[in-house]
Design brief:
This protein is mostly helical. The chain has helices at about 5-25, 30, 45-65, 75-80, 85, 90-110, 130-155, and strands at about 70, 120-125, 125-130. The model has no long low-confidence stretch (mean pLDDT about 95).
Amino acid sequence: MTEQERQVCIDKIAALPSLLRAAITGATDDQLSKPYRDGGWNSRQVIHHLADSHMMAYIRFKKTVAEDHPTLQAYNQDVWASHGDGWTGPLEPSLSILDGVHARWAAFLRALPETAWSRTAIHQERGPMTLEDLLRIYSGHGEKHIGHIKAGLAA
């Protein structure tokens, strides 16, 4: 991945909170409670999932830089999304988490030296990964879920 490609990915991470807020502006509780597909999460669950997932991601990035070949803990996102706070909880706490985490995350990534991008970690489900691998995954993760939210709101 080139430095320019990395910067595009980091810019996506930085932009996610405002894009998410824009996507849900004017949405009703009924719209937020509709799944984006049969058997899928509702928009509220997707938003809470983004907060859960991206807090975990930020920690994974920091561990990969701070430790030699750390193990990156997996978690069952479906179980996390099924808890009451993910199913019906108010959105503002998760939106605020995303605002803060993404601001810190983007600043952290922008300050990394070139040598950091090849650092490795072992993901419990995916196996060995570099920091660049993680960046590729998470720079598109939010966009994918904003698509799910828009589909759920339009349903």
